[in-house]
Amino acid sequence: MTSPFDHEALWIKAKLFLNRAMDDGARSFDEQALWAALALELLAKAALSRVSPLLIAEPNEEGTNLLIASGLIQGDARFTSVRAKTLMARCHKAFKPFDQAEAMKIINGRNEYLHSSGAGFLAIPPHAWWPRYWAQATTLVTALDRDIEELVGADREHTVTKHLEQNAKNLEQRTEALIERAKQRRQQWLDETLSAKVAAEWKTGQALSAQMVHSEAVACPACGSTGLLEGDEVVEVETHYPEATGYGPDEYEVGAWDDASVTLTISADYFSCPSCQLVLNSYDLINQAGLDIQFEAEGDVDDYLPDEPDYGND
Questions:
Q1: 196: exposed, middle or buried (C-beta count within 10 Å: 0-12, 13-18, 19+)?
Q2: Which residue(s) pair with 263 in the sheet?
Q3: Would you say 262 and 299 are in contact if contact means Cβ atoms under 8 Å apart?
Q4: Per-domain residue ranges of the chain
Q5: Which domain of life is it from (predicted)?
């Protein structure tokens, strides 16, 4: 019997669902999108489970799901995975440039289609929906060390490639539009020709910021003023110790703990500029605009250094 968290089984099921999703002749767009959205969730589970099944196991009071995922227990116990929102959040952190916000639009469209009277997938036309879908799905395929041909077959690979090319063009156009509008807005502000409504909506730096944990001042790609690059995710920690100054009476190195510092490498997820009101609220937009996708920040030594050794000299 196949384990419910087995990444190979999840991959195969995702392939099956995408085969149905790409069946143009027999299905309407909303039905195709439904199968594709279900496949996206399976791909997310497969990518995380390949790292560790614990990443998709829903914790419960008895710990049954975690025990099943860890392989410590077997049997007929029902395995429950985490919610789609949690899956997408974890993939966003683990597999760049997977975009949680874009993925959740797909998942929310699925939920609306199934559980409400809303338009669901029909709110976005197919020619716009598919490029955005494949931008997320292919990131998960890469995380699985697979390729598109393995997922959809050689005869459909070209279709996916065309969607990806269109998405890249859309991203380029959107980034350019945001930057050009910011330049225009800045000039209108300087010329005092902004409409009263737009002027009233003008935000200060703090109001424009996403208030993420880490930030760095950088030049704005639109107006050249100082903007703020922000992020929460720490991707690397580097600890710096000062050179030893000698040995103290307790025979341990003096200076090994004092004056140490920690440098963090942060993944950039948000940029804002109070001078022109430019906001780039995703990794892809930041990258497309030519800004650094990572920056350094100072870490708290107490959070990253081990406790000083106890030498028993009390």
A1: exposed
A2: 238, 298
A3: yes
A4: 7-152, 203-304
A5: Bacteria
